[in-house]
Amino acid sequence: MKILIAADMExxxxxxxxxxxxxxxxxYPRFCRLMTGDVNAAIRGAFAGGATSAVVTDGHxxxxxxxxxxxxSRAKLNSGxxxxxxxxxxxxxxxxxxxxxxxxxxxxxxxxxxDHTWSDERVSGxxxxxxxxxxxxxxxxxxxxxxxxxxxxxxxxxxxxxxxELFGNKIETAQVKKAVSRMSAECLPPAVTASLIExxxxxxxxxxxxxxxxxxxxxxxxxxxLVKFEQSEMADKAALMPNAxxxxxRRVEYVAPDMVTIYLAFRTMLALAR
Length: 274
Ligand SMILES: [Zn+2]
Hints:
Blueprint: E1 2-7, H1 28-48, E2 53-58, E3 75-78, E4 97-101, E5 123-128, E6 131-132, H2 135-145, E7 150-156, H3 157-167, E8 172-181, E9 184-187, H4 190-209, E10 223-229, H5 232-238, E11 245-246, E12 251-256, H6 259-272
Parallel strand pairs: 1-2, 1-4, 2-3, 4-7, 7-8
Antiparallel strand pairs: 5-6, 5-10, 8-9, 10-12, 11-12
Helix pairs in contact: 1-4
């Protein structure tokens, strides 16, 4: 029973502001510790539920946030950037289930801490086959490409609702804060969220062993990716990607036969749009 724990930072316990997740800011080191705490809770729960191995992928910013010196010694850590599969580096057909820790809702969501989709400055929306997708959807669909289900997510209440909509009601969720705006939330302290995340992960892995988890997220092929950029010049630059089409306003579309190609194309367009 191999579990991949894909971690982001905006949905971590206590996070309500960009400063707290920005390397170099004086507040950032505290939140690296809190992120590591949320991840460790998920690892403990996964093993308690019957996992036999766990890989953690640090998916925030340049993938150098989790404190390896404090990481549960049973897990391995994918760290650094870029890696081929970025936020879900490590997923393949041998992984049995994926747990999202510290995730956030997609760009434009209401009452969602630091809502964005990959880049707050460049992306105002992403659609896959016409359906609005955030990072949970994009990463979950890459896991689906390898037939791997997302079995749990932690974050605020809006992220929890988003993953239920994407993956179905069988996904387990740990709500660590209740957002009342983009940068304000009622937060549970880490002493409480640690046991909440641990117990939720334990249940999710037990569900997996009992085949009661959501199905892997599959998208219909060929897959249409639509990205709406924040500025016109960003769309101009992204449209330089071969076979990408600038459609209306600041929208660029791209069609590919599989989700991994879509994921690479999306990240390439964002790199061009810098
Ligand atoms: Zn992040």
